[in-house]
Amino acid sequence: MMGPPTTFCGNNKCKKIRRPLPPRETWKKKIEFLLAVVGFAVDLGNVWRFPYICYQNGGGAFLIPYVVMLVFGGLPLFYMELALGQFHRCGCLTVWKKICPALKGVGYAICLIDMYMGMYYNTVISWALYYLFSSMRSELPWTSCDNPWNTLNCTPVTNLSALTNVSTSPAKEFFERSVLEQHRADGLDRIGPIKWSLALCLLAVFLLVYFSLWKGVRSTGMAVWVTSLAPYVVLFMLLFQGISLPGAGEGIRYYLTPQWHKLVNTKVWIDAASQVFFSLGPGFGTLLALSSYNKFNNNCYWDAILTSSINFLTSFLAGFVIFTMLGYMAHVQNKSISEVGTEGPGLVFIVYPEAIAMMTGSVMWALIFFLLLITLGLDSTFGGLEAIITGLCDEYPNVLKRHRELFVAGLVAVIYILSLPTTTYGGVYLITLLNVFGPGIAILFVVFVEAAAVCWVYGVDRFANDIEMMIGHRPGMYWRLCWCYISPAFLLIIFVFSILGYKDMMAGGSYVYPDWSINLGWLMTASSISCIPAYFIYKVCKTPGSFMQRIRLAMKPEDPEPDDRGIVAIASTVHGVGGSGGGGGGTHV
User: Residue range 532-556: average pLDDT?
Assistant: First the structure.
């Protein structure tokens, strides 16, 4: 493949030369690609969110709306992104030249969303790293109330006679007053200085990320053998330990007992759709980037089925791990499971450590558990940053692709600096704000535009032709109906309900976010979404001709050129721009 033209001048003459780019890397082994995709999809949300919303929304009955939303909403979008990346062999920016150039703003929106995610997600991993270091002692620091950070209200959870309405557990005080020290901040109005111990943990996380990504799929392929497989070893170890504890059976019953009457509640179906979407992760550019390094004839259809199934089964398995522990805690404290359970960071940084502290060999189990959280988080952050790296390197190959190591170092350094405010005493409030308004709402609209562009502008029949050229058979009516109608509707519904329910997503504790912070959050959401119309207007204004001619030309895919294998994709471009009727056979020349 040839790079963009570069101007060279000498002897009073200037000429443009297109230098050949280095051939595109491919995964050394197919299993490395699968591990990378599974590692990206299986993240902290599988552990701290799925089990909670499962029992909250009907227990075993929740699996029905979850599977329905997976089959008709999440899986088709997951398959679509894997196929797009593999066929066009480029990232989230350059791919739009081959689909609809006027919508290249979708790619810039994805890069910005991934930046926002990188600014807080790695901090959560740094909390787990802090816990890992804190566990390397003879007694876990959240076992007793005899530490400098403890208050007079601290009461060990096993001391049932001393528990009152104002009692707090040692694990809760360790997280809030030792790890975060959020009592030293006044919310977002005065977040306080950087806590340097957390900043150093965050630096260690970014160094791990850099050395896993700097060489491209070669270094990532080696890293995912550890970061993708280790969580399953740890999950099964925790499961076997959990089912041996008293009260574990009651926890499993609470997790799985169907509450059929909840299926008539609309919120249950919306929660299922949201969990499916954010668990599989289409739209973050990661699936495009990872699949772009596949061989052309790789069977991405079975990849999509296999990896999405593993993701679902992992969430289900994590539920057993969590609820055996919750059952044990409820048994020890003589409470109901609903009184000890919670979701989000509180589950994995307060409730679960609390249960571990009451177990025999608590130090060993704490080390194992926080290693699980670190490996789960690292895989997902690999994916988010790889989406930015691949997208920009493919778009600016002469500048960035030839100097990938320096570019990755610069990108990681910038995101680290931007992440430092989340390591302040009030950083936990900033993390919630970034989570909701960074990727939380905007990504839904971005993926809706992406799905609509592929199926309604590029053409679903043309897209089906592309897949047939790769894997030898054409997607059936089910896939095409999902891509054209069901999946876009799935995304639009979640997007609308997310906007209406943003206050629920920010709920947690007694803190009330100031109005200025909510306004800032909506500006963050608008900053990524606005990339789409802004680039569309720029492209139309830049294109010559009348208004309608400009729009048609701006949306017309660019002429293909041979990739590094000398292949030109004919079927994708000979039909011009149009709706789903762009059918017709195609061949590779």
Answer: 91
